[in-house]
Amino acid sequence: MKTDFLMLKRFLAQSLAAFTLALFASIAGAQALKSDVPTIDIKNGTASATPITVVPFSYEGAALPPETNVDEVIGTDLNRCGQFRVLPKESVVERPAHGNEIKFPTWNMLKQAYIVVGRQIETGNGGEVRVEFELWDVAQQKQMLGLAISGQRTGMRDVAHQIADLVYEKITGVRGAFWTRIAYIVSTGLGNNISYALMVADSDGYNPQTVVRSHEPLLSPAWSPDGRKLAYVSFERGNSSIYIQEISTGAREVISSAKGINGAPAFSPDGSKLAMTLSYGGNPDIYVMDLATRHTTQLTKHFAIDTEAAWMPDGQSLIFLSDRSGKPQLYQTSANGGGDATRITFQGEYNANPSISYDGKRIAMVQGSGNVYRIAVLDRASGETKAISPGSLDDHPSFAPNASMILYAATEGSRDVLWAVSTNANVRQRLLLADGDVREPTWSPYRQRGQ
Amino acid sequence: MKLPVRVLLTAAVASATLVACSSNKPKPQPPVTQTGTDTMTDRNTNNGGKYTVESLDTDSCLRQRVVYFDFDHSEIKPEFQAQIACHASYLRQFPGARVTLEGNADERGTREYNLGLGERRGNAVSSALGSSGASSSQLNVVSYGEERPTCKDHNEGCWQKNRRVEIVYTSKQ
Questions:
Q1: A93: Cβ–Cβ under 8 A, 6 or more apart, which residues?
Q2: A266: which residues sit within 8 A by CB, 6+ positions away?
Q3: Low-confidence ranges of chain B (pLDDT < 50)
Q4: Which of B69, B53, B8, B52 is closest to B34 using CA atoms?
Q5: pLDDT tier, A3 (very low <50, low <70, confident <90, very high otherwise)
Q6: A-interface mutation test, from B23, B102, B111, most A Cβ less than 10 A away
Q7: What is the reported pTM?
Q8: Does B149 sit within 8 Å of A411, measured CB to CB?
Q9: Buried-state track A248-286, b at ≥16 Cβ within 10 A, e below 16
Q10: Strand B98-104, strand B139-145: pairing
């Protein structure tokens, strides 16, 4: 809890610094097409979630209000993380815009724990809109937050996600992760007409932009810890190669193009190293490259398939997949290359594709049994594994940077689609992003302002 | 004798969908029904430099360019030994010929693991060709994992078509 408190203090300080910060959406030029708008299906009940009301925000200005419905975006964010139950709009009987207009008996009667009110104000400074908002504790009739974030009219989704993050953090004590991004692969067509794209979008699937497009397979996107670069695997040179590409400029370089497999890139937590799978030695093993010197160290040396390395948050060890016991299972090994690998999964016949929570306490993975592949979460302390997706061909889990949600890919009929599931498994949301198969969702680190 | 011949013919029919392998991408085509070519005879008479470059298009054994595998396995099944043997024989006869062995996996399991599995299958075909006399400089393995399916149905009928190594001639002589 102490860590959470420190995080809270730190982020509140950042939030205050952003009090009147104008935000310019860096990807404003890539507005979502209508067909790219995600479909949100809340599947399960959220009886245990905290009830909260987000009152529709008022608007003051001469021009038309921004297209984005800020309060709706905030409400959807809070709903989909599984920890909140947002009062449906039709039940919002009163519409206070300021804290002093809130009639608390009304919201008490509606059994609301918290209420968010706000207003959007045209500042007269270009297309800028200032969004002022307040979070109130209903039972105590006490203000918990009163802040303002400014942004361009076209960047109101960014503003809304940041407000949702602040509300989430104030109530839960954990930094919010709604204002983040996701990377994923889209493939369309079959056979000679197949084409692949590496995409980046907001965490809710809006504002998709193409990072790279190819007629040869693209896979395994991995974020740099500063969120500015992606490592990925491309077959455009005929064989698999690992690239690192800067998202904003498109500048990229080949990191590894050795004989055999060049796969599964993963940045170390400090961004200085890249773990990867190389098979030039005869079979796939885990290697770590120092990105400054390009010096490569071999971490595993086994005739089995060793791949899908993921760094522990302290950077001291990695979790990876190996089928050295016959079937894929997860192992842990030191980042320095010394010592043996220790097996860490024992339940299930097939455990693969580890994604590690920020505190290192939970590992999300693909768990296979027969022809059914589900997303499961391993609790390191208890050793217990819990399935959080229904299957049957679920793949590629990726934790949100605050571990509140997990993204994964699922096969539905002839299509691959993305789902976001709350880590408590209470809420699942389908992100219908584009035509074709959408897969390998990879959650970005926390976003830095100006990014 | 009856059983092996039938199995070989089945393999010939299955791989006939991928005969035109000048492109390195699988071309989905409706299965072609072949009538009784005696592949055993062809194989047995082609040991003494009898192939020509055209044999790649005309010889019923050399026209088989796909080796199929069991789920999560990379052992070459007995019914593909004849196919391996005739390609090894061709490679021995034409030292300038080069093949890329494209390893593939079905959609089950994770993508990076399937890259490893595809490579394992490619390596299995590569060593089988090598031990039958092909030179290692003629053999190149590329794994596509599950990234290049020939079909996308979620059943064994489709999965078994995707668990494969395609023998692609990048140089014929």
A1: A106, A110
A2: A222, A231, A274, A275, A276, A309, A310, A311, A318
A3: 1-46
A4: B8
A5: very low
A6: B111
A7: 0.84
A8: no
A9: eeeebeebbebebbbbbbbbbeebebbbbbbbeeebbbb
A10: parallel
User: Cβ distance A439 to A98 under 8 Å?
Assistant: no
Asked if residue A414 has a cis previous peptide bond (ω within 30° of 0), the answer is no
Q: Which of B144, B151, B152 sits opposite A217 (nearest CB)?
A: B144
Shortest alpha-carbon distance between residue A189 and chain B (Å): 11
C-alpha span between A327 and A358 (Å, rounded)? 27
Answer yes or no: do B112 and A307 touch at CB < 8 A.
yes
Q: CA of A163: how far to CAs of A21, A50, A91, A421, in Å?
A: 13, 17, 22, 21
Which of A261, A308, A366 has the CB atom closest to B119's CB atom?
A261
Rounded Cα gap, residues A402 and A150, in angstroms: 25
Cα separation, A363 vs A317, whole angstroms: 14
Q: How far apart are the first and last CA of chain A?
A: 30
* Span A343-372, pLDDT tens digits: 999 999 999 999 999 999 999 999 999 889
Chain A residues with at least one Cβ partner in B under 8 Å? 190-192, 194, 217, 219-220, 235, 238-240, 260-261, 263-264, 277, 279, 283-284, 305, 307-308, 321, 323, 327-328, 350, 352-353, 366, 368, 371, 373, 392-393, 395-396, 411, 414, 440
Do A229 and A243 touch, CB atoms closer than 8 A?
no
ipTM of the complex, rounded to two decimals: 0.86
Length of chain A, in residues? 451
Q: What is the pLDDT of residue A44?
A: 52
- Cα distances from B164 to residues A136, B18, B109, B170, in angstroms, run 61, 11, 15, 18
Average pLDDT over residues A236-256: 96
Q: Which of A239, A411, A416, A417 to substitute to test the interface with B, most B CBs within 10 Å?
A: A239
**Residues, chain B:** 173
Task: Give the residue among A443, A373, A374 at the shortest CA–CA distance from A404.
Answer: A443
B/e letters for B30-61, b = 16+ CB within 10 Å, e = fewer, are eeeeeeeeebeebbeebeeeebeeebbeebbb
Q: Which helix (H) or strand (E) holds A189?
A: none
Residue A217 and residue B110: Cβ atoms within 8 Å? Answer: no
